[in-house]
Amino acid sequence: MTKGRGDQGDAPAPENPTTPPLDPKVDYELAKDELPGWFGYVEWEDYPEKKKAAHEILISHEFPPPPEFQLEPIPGTNPVLEGVRWKEWHRASQIPIIDPNSWFLRLEGLVKEPKKLTLADLQDESKFPRMERLVTIQCSGTRRIEQISLYAGEGDEMINAPWAEGAIGTARYVGISLKKVIKYCGGLVDGAKHLELVGADTYFKMSEVMNYAISVPYSKVQANEVMLVWEMNGEPLPKIHGAPVRAVVLGYIGARSVKWLYRITAIPEPTKAPVQSREYLYFNQQVGKHNQRWTDGIQIQEMPVSSAIMAPWNKQVVIHEGKISVKGWAYSGGGRWPERVEVSADGGFSWYMVPVENLSPKHKFAWRTWHTELPCDVEGWIELVVRCWDNSLSKSLWFMMACLYIIDTQPTEVRNAWNWGLHVTSSAHRVRIYSVNKSKERTRARLEEFEKRGTSFVPITRPTEFPFMTWEEYDEFFAKAGPRDIEV
Ligand SMILES: Nc1nc2c(c(=O)[nH]1)N[C@H]1C(S)=C(S)[C@@H](COP(=O)(O)O)O[C@H]1N2
Ligand SMILES: [Mo]
């Protein structure tokens, strides 16, 4: 199956310590590594007959049903996140480990001069100027767990990705603009309007195997908003983030930032690869698991404005002096940025603005982290909420006159944004905490009492075995205030 590409060197594949033992029932020849130095890269798109053979194997194999975790708690042994179903099939479902010296990029399709470029070519500053950007990559499934926990979704897409507030990250990337690479290839042939970006990993969808692929409009490339990067936060791009080279598509959802990139194909229409054509769609509430068509969903490219509280945690007991320290992130897609963040300690009835000096600096394609001291007088359970406005507010004031509530900030409830695919959870993020306000004299005394006794204050669900006041204090109170019950 190996198609020779003679000039690519023959460095031995690095050892992968997590390779599962060979399974005698599996056809390893079928999913053999395509190239020396490219461990875990199986080429599927060039070999339709090989894809078909893999499909035959997959449909004849009986996979265990995914463990239930949406209507029930995640099992203690957590087989959910490991992706046991696909790993059962083949090690091709692991990430590729590609020797940077063996790596090369194929530029194909409707480019005037198709080329193969090595990493050294991309890094040659006489060919391509360097580009460095602070970029937030956000998965459109960020905070999906809030939709799942209220309204369970479809197993197939959610099983490996029950993301909370952490499916977003910001890093400084170094690389080049894809625009310059296309120019180096003589530009595009007339009629080419999109670029398909393909990754070396194996992707599974409905018992089909394929290389991970998406497409971006050429206009996005021309705006210098598609980077090819090899450095992240001053280090070579880590394996898990797509080494040696990945795409970073500024302002688009994470799914477009293809990792382990090896092929770019100029095409006339958006790709029909499933990640672009059948997934990452935002459905309306008249369509669900059993009547949706791929054409019913809006393609998710730019995330709307959203935010999250990163501290304190849900169910945390927070001891404070009348103000709770809250921190988190705020982000908006498409090159928009957070302008204002507001936090509530009462479930979203009253809101306090985060002082602007407590927001990290503005960047066109990055989040702003924030922190604030939120006044709170309540003892016991409260609901912290965050919402954010982005800069499209200032751009579209005329529109705001017409529909005050729907633009530029976030819907208040998870249900407002619920959709069958469980994407784009952009509702105001809510965290329930237990407030203990030690600026109150008695609360402070009580905490000291716990300390004196060497008793732990948490968990708050534990009964406390010591009294709140003495009988002398009790009698003194009612002597002053009058009796509890009035006798006629
Ligand atoms: N080749 C390849 N690239 C990929 C993916 C993938 O499965 N394969 N996942 C995408 C998705 S859905 C997201 S959210 C981001 C995550 O990037 P990270 O792993 O660097 O956080 O990578 C994207 N690029
Ligand atoms: Mo994602």
TrEMBL record:
Highest taxon of the lineage: Eukaryota
A GO biological-process term: sulfur compound metabolic process
InterPro entries xref list: Ig_E-set (IPR014756), MoCF_OxRdtse_dimer (IPR005066), Mopterin_OxRdtase_euk (IPR008335), OxRdtase_Mopterin-bd_dom (IPR000572), OxRdtase_Mopterin-bd_sf (IPR036374)
Pfam families: Mo-co_dimer, Oxidored_molyb
Keyword Lyase found: no
Record's keyword terms, sorted: Metal-binding, Molybdenum, Oxidoreductase
Start and end residues of each Moybdenum cofactor oxidoreductase dimerisation domain: 299-394
Ranges for domain Oxidoreductase molybdopterin-binding: 94-272
One of the record's GO cellular component terms: mitochondrion
Cofactor dependence: Mo-molybdopterin
GO molecular function, one term: molybdenum ion binding
Residue ranges, annotated region (Disordered): 1-25
Segments of skewed composition (Pro residues): 14-23
Name this protein carries in UniProt: Sulfite oxidase
Organism: Xylaria hypoxylon
